[in-house]
Amino acid sequence: MDTQQNTALTRALAEVPGPLPTSGVIHIAIPHTDRFTVVGNHLAQHPDLSCTAVGIAVRIQSLPQGIEVGIKALAARCREGEKRIAAALRELEAFGYLQRVRNRLPSGRVITRTVFCNQPTALLHPRRPAAPQHPAAPAPRPAPAQTPPRAPAQTKTPTPAPPATEQPTPPMPPAPTGPPGPSERPSPEATALLPVPPPQPQLPQSSPFVPLPPSLPPSLPLVPPPTAPKPPPRPLPRPSELTPELDRAATAFLSDLHRHAPQLMLSETDVRQLVPGVAAWLERGAHPDAVRHALTDDPPVPLRRPALLLKHRITELLPPPPPGFQELAALTRRPRITVTPFQTCDACDRAFRSPTPGHCRDCRSEHARSAA
Predict the structure, then answer these.
(1) What is the pLDDT of residues 330-365, one digit of tens each?
(2) What is the pLDDT of residues 24-72, one digit of tens each?
(3) Does one domain contain both 359 and 253?
């Protein structure tokens, strides 16, 4: 008796009406009273969707409106990884169940709105509001003189009365299916008594469903697919001239970066590749503390490739050059004139220009004559 038996399921199985099938699944359908979601068989039995995509679609459909359903948000709720969830979302997007629309807010920020439709095939043939059908105008009542007298109700009397003959009721004319003709239109008095049709429901302005143009099918994604060619990345900025001073300062900056952000531990190869970018920042007058704050502020978690993150931030957050930067760079590139320093003669204390200390020209000539 070490195996537990589900006695409740056994009792419910015994109460299933009708003969049970000899093979296959047996359904025990208990009506839901709360916390349930209606899912169509077109999704649950979709022949081209994977079971992961169907499960992700059911999970999204069961969530309330306004909940984040991005890849990372779903990965935090489900046991599947980000790659499987991303593939499932692409499947749902290809068959029209999901749409990701990019909108720009008044502040300039670009956000992605996720729109989920539980029945995308209904969008291919939207329901047109039916024209209000007016009931047929009531037939004019005949004059009292023309109304045949109805037989009195039969009562139990001692003397048998002849059976009352009932007039056959004329059949009602069929209701018109199209708009009434000129002769069938009701009078203004009858029109005033007709019920007013209820107004057609309209989507509010804040509805998440974005109307698609009629020429495009709803399954066409508005976001470029992952397989679309991406533009080449921008090259790493470089200074106008990588001087030894800039090279030493940039190398020391990158080598010391892990002391302020331990997750940004760089190899020697990464440091040599990123040195020109940091040198471009320093050449433009950026303070090292400002550069460090811009490159290490709020890194993603987990951070797998710190060198790529630094390369992206160095390229995208490069500050503009200060005024007169081009003229200053041109001045620094000019060839410098070497000035020979003054020296003092060791014999006569006369000043003369020479790269090295010693004797002046006269003393050297006199020393040469005395030596001869």
Answers:
(1) 555 555 567 788 888 888 888 888 888 888 888 888
(2) 888 777 788 888 888 988 899 898 999 999 999 999 989 888 888 889 9
(3) no
CB count, 10 Å around CB of 285? 12
Whether pTM exceeds 0.85 = no
CA dist 194 and 230 (Å) reads 62
Residue at which a domain ends, from 169, 195, 230? 230
Q: Give the position of tokens 């239109």.
A: 185
**Do 256 and 117 lie in a common domain?**
no
Total domain count, the chain: 3
Which of the pair, 330 or 368, is modelled with greater confidence? 368
With beta carbons less than 8 A apart as the criterion, state whether 87 and 98 touch: no
Tokens found for residue 23: 């093979």
Q: How far is CA 320 from the centre of its chain?
A: 31
CA distance readout (Å), 318 to 138, 299, 307, 326, 362: 81, 17, 16, 16, 60
**Placement of tokens 């760089």 in the chain:** 266
Angstrom distance (rounded) from CA 312 to CA 307: 9
pLDDT digit string, tens, across residues 124-153 = 766 665 555 555 555 555 555 555 555 454
| Domain range enclosing 366 | 342-371
Q: 230-244 pLDDT, tens per residue?
A: 778 788 988 888 888
Question: What is the C-alpha to C-alpha distance for residues 192 and 186, in angstroms, rounded to an integer?
Answer: 10
Instruction: Say whether 102 sits in a helix, a strand or coil.
Output: strand
In this structure, are residues 336 and 345 in contact, taking their beta carbons and an 8 Å threshold?
Answer: no
β-pairing verdict for 98-104 and 110-116 = antiparallel
Rg (CA), the chain: 45
Return the H-helix or E-strand segment holding 342: strand 342-344
